[in-house]
Structure formats: C-alpha cells, structure tokens
Design goal:
Helices cover 7% and strands 45% of the residues. It contains three helices and 25 strands. The relative contact order is 0.12.
Length: 388
C-alpha cells in the first residue's frame, strides 16, 4: 500500500511540472493578452488596379481597438507620392477611427509603395499596407517631359522638338497655356495627326545668362483628369571649351598604375583638335580615345583622354600637371592638375578640391537627421506625406 502511494505521489508531481511549463513561453499569460490593445485593420491593402494618368486613386481604411487598454497609432508613408491621413490616437477599448490613403496618379508606371502603421499592440507593433497598381500615360513624350540644351552661348538660338503621342481611348486637343512661354524660351505646338500626335517645338530666346536658365511650358488638354502637361526646360551656357575634371587625385591606395578619364567638351559647330599632350611627371601616360559617333542634333561634342596615373610613390610630392594642347587659339592649352593626397597626413594644401578639404580621413560626411521620436504628436486626421 505504501509503494502504491509513492507512485501516485510521483505522478502527481510530474503533472504539476507539466502544468507550469507554459509559464516559460514568451507569450504573455492569457489574462494579460486580454488586457492588451489589439489592432484590427480593414482592409489590409490598397490595390487600385490599372487606371489612366490623373484618375483618382483613394481608399478609406478603418482601425479598431479590439483589446482592453488604449491603442496608440502612428502612420508613415514610404514616398511623397503616397499621402495618408492620421487616424485618431489613442483609441479606447472598442473604439474605431478611419483614415485614407491617396496615390498621386500623375506619376505613370507601376506603383509599389507602402504605408506603415506603428502601434503599441504587443502582437502587431507594425502593420504594413501595400499600395500597388499601374498608371497608364495619357500622353507619351519623346524624349521626355524634361528637356536640357547644353553647350549654348549667350546668343544661341537653339530649337528642340518634343513629340507627344495620345495613348487615350479618344482624340484629345492640346494648346499652350497663354502666357506660359517665358522670355528665354518660345514654344510652338504643331498637330501632326489631329487629336492624336503633336510636336512641341521649344526655342531659346537670347540673350541667355551664364550657367543654367530654367523655365516651364504648360500645355492644356481637353481631358478632365489631366488638365495640363508640364514641361521643364533648361538651357546651359558654358565656355566654348570645357575641361572635366580639372584635377586628378592620387592617394596611397594607388599602388600600381590606375586609369582615369578626362573629357574636352566643345561646341559641335566649332570643332577642335588635340595636337599633343604633355605631362610634368614621366610616369603619366595619356591617350586620346576614338571619338563616339556624334548625334545629329547634338550641340556639343567631346574628346576623351585616358590618363594612366602612376603609383602614389612615383608622383612628386608637389604633384604634377597634364597639359592638353589644341588647335583652338583661345583654348590652346588645357591643364589638368595631378594632386598627391594622403588623408592620414592631411596638410591643408590649397590645391586640394573642396570635397577633400572638407573630408576627414576620406570618410563621407552626412547631414544630421532629426529624430522623429523628439517630435510632438500630431492631431488626428493630419495628412502625412513622406519626403521624396
């Protein structure tokens, strides 16, 4: 009888051990789970399908607190093209709130964005809403909605053509908005196929300033969802001949010959030839590469020079120079400086480029970002838009 009681006692003790085993699990006790906030989200994604450019892409979402303690919610968008409003926060037990997500359909192509909800729900601290779809262009533009003309002089009258093609299901009319042509660009719209294809001809109006001159041309359409097409125009005035880069840097990491390239840019209507190249350092080798075939409408052309730099130890401490001699009377000599730079023994040479002067042992410097945790909470229904 005593042996039987001992066996029963051992079995009872084993049962107690098994009953305590779940306490070692990471999951909170069942009573604590019931007291936690619980995020309930509906729907859980935003697929706006295939739509035309400019059409509406907006959806409403509902968040509910299915738990027994207050639920806090913050939202973040992955892109400035995806705008989300803020739901109410915090939400008491059983309370719900609505918010919306809107996608900018002026952007054509495939959309693959996301909106993230950050909560104090221990089982769902982050909920990601996928935003996806396809936006079809109503008008395609060749070469594009951004146009830059390079190699201009202050008195240049240069023209470029942007070909517009209607992709919509019905003919559309276009016209340049009155007063949208700025003083340095003149625009003319010529229909090539009625309601379907147009040529937008943009011409510079001198005098142009040195550097970049920028403006926009607005074209109005007869399509309600896409009332305007905006074209960004740039014209760059430079000297007739430009050398890039003007400095080549040699660091201790270069232990054997290293190849670099230098480009001599000139205006296509005023070609120049490279007659010879000289260097003050015997270890520097220079070769003029075969020119690339020029584009028919190109305003500028290039000579490309391959510069083989010697190892760091073979470059004089004072550096060296490469002099490119041309047949142009005004730009007969173009000089490239070769700078010897050791980031571990920085001496502050005045010939160093700014990016090396400002660096610290070759490490990139990054701007300080504001900590979002330090920002005050925003009110409910405030619009959130990520920086692009």
């Amino acid at each position: 009888m005593l042996r039987l009681l001992m066996i029963v006692g051992l079995l009872s003790g084993a049962g107690q051990v098994l009953a305590l085993a779940p306490a070692d699990n990471d999951q909170p006790p069942q009573g604590e789970q019931a007291r936690s906030p619980i995020l309930e989200l509906s729907p859980d994604q935003f697929d706006f399908g295939t739509i035309w450019q400019g059409a509406g892409a907006k959806r409403e979402f509902t968040v509910r607190n299915g738990g027994q303690s207050p639920l806090t919610i913050d939202v973040k968008s992955s892109c400035g093209c995806t705008v989300v409003t803020r739901p109410q926060s915090p939400l008491g037990p059983g309370e719900s709130s609505k918010f919306t997500i809107t996608y900018d359909t002026l952007r054509v192509g495939t959309a693959r964005k996301r909106v993230t909800l950050m909560t104090n729900d221990p089982h769902q601290p982050r909920a990601v809403i996928q935003v996806k779809g396809e936006v079809m262009p109503i008008f395609t533009a060749d070469p594009g909605y951004r146009l830059t003309m390079y190699g201009l002089s202050p008195d240049s009258v240069a023209s470029r053509t942007i070909h517009l093609k209607n992709q919509y299901t019905e003919p559309l009319d276009l016209r340049i908005r009155s007063g949208s042509e700025e003083s340095h660009f003149a625009a003319e719209l010529r229909p090539t196929v009625a309601g379907s294809e147009y040529d937008l001809i943009v011409t510079t109006v001198p005098p142009l300033s040195q550097g970049f001159t920028r403006d926009k041309v607005i074209v109005e359409t007869s399509q309600e969802d896409l009332p305007v097409l905006t074209f960004s125009l740039s014209a760059r005035v430079e000297p007739r001949v430009v050398l890039r880069p003007t400095r080549l840097t040699v660091t201790p990491r270069i232990t054997k010959q290293a190849a670099r390239t230098v480009r001599v840019q000139y205006r296509a209507d005023e070609p120049l030839k490279i007659e010879k190249i000289e260097s003050t350092c015997p270890g520097v080798e220079c070769t003029v590469l075969p020119p690339a075939p020029p584009r028919g409408d190109a305003l500028v052309a290039f000579h490309t020079v391959r510069v083989n730099l010697p190892a760091y130890a073979e470059v004089p401490d004072e550096g060296a120079q490469v002099v490119i001699h041309t047949d142009d009377k005004e730009f007969s000599e173009l000089t490239v400086k070769i700078i010897k730079f050791d980031p571990d023994n920085f001496g502050g040479s005045p010939d160093l480029p700014d990016e090396l002067k400002n660096g610290t042992k070759g490490k990139a410097r990054h701007p300080v970002q504001e900590n979002s945790k330090d920002k005050p909470k925003d009110n409910a229904n405030e619009t959130v838009k990520a920086k692009e």
